[in-house]
Amino acid sequence: MDERSGVGEAELIGIGASLAAVLAAGDIIALRGGLGAGKTTLTRGLLSALGLEEEAPSPTFAIVQPYAPPEVRLSLTHVDLYRLDGPDQAEELGLDDYLSDGALVIEWPDRLGERLWPDALLIDIAVDEDGSRRLTAHVPPAWKGRWSLT
């Protein structure tokens, strides 16, 4: 488990960019944290580093927001499960289908219940009293040696 404290908005964007540098088809990044913690900011950094020129919208209302070449260099689907009531609704989204030629970033992965993929990189984002973020990464074997939060 990696941990990093005192993270500001610019660093969240940088962490997203560092993930983009190693991201491959089939990868899953799960982001946990309260409202306003910075999950979408981190994802915007990732998408920008993948080549997205405009600012990515939050997928809170769309739930699933896909990006594909030539807009980005690797297909990436940004998913926000906040509005779902449970794992059954998440199952209906067919998220596995996006992994054959791209990667997933999932906000609010707890809405999947026990269904989170075992090789998913899980990043917890907590907001400290001073407004900075504390990130904790649970790095599965598939990500070890490829990416580190520290």
Q: Would you list the SSEs in sequence order as H and E?
A: EHEHEEHEEE
Q: What's the name of the CATH homologous superfamily?
A: P-loop containing nucleotide triphosphate hydrolases
Q: Would you identify the regions where 5 or more consecutive residues have pLDDT less than 50?
A: none
From the spread of the alpha carbons, the general shape counts as: globular
- Note the gap between the termini: 10 Å
Mean of pLDDT: 94
Largest sheet report: 7 strands, mixed
Which structural class best describes the helix and strand composition? Answer: alpha/beta
Supply the CATH architecture.
3-Layer(aba) Sandwich
Residue share in β-strands: 25-35%
DSSP helix fraction: 10-25%
Q: Total domains, how many? A: 1
Describe this structure in words.
With 150 residues, the protein is an alpha/beta fold. It has three helices and seven strands. It has a seven-stranded mixed β-sheet, with helices on one face. Helix 1 crosses helix 2. The model has no long low-confidence stretch (mean pLDDT 94). Its main location: cytoplasm. Belongs to the TsaE family. It is found in: Cytoplasm. Keywords: ATP-binding, Cytoplasm, Magnesium, Membrane, Metal-binding, Nucleotide-binding, Transmembrane, Transmembrane helix, tRNA processing.
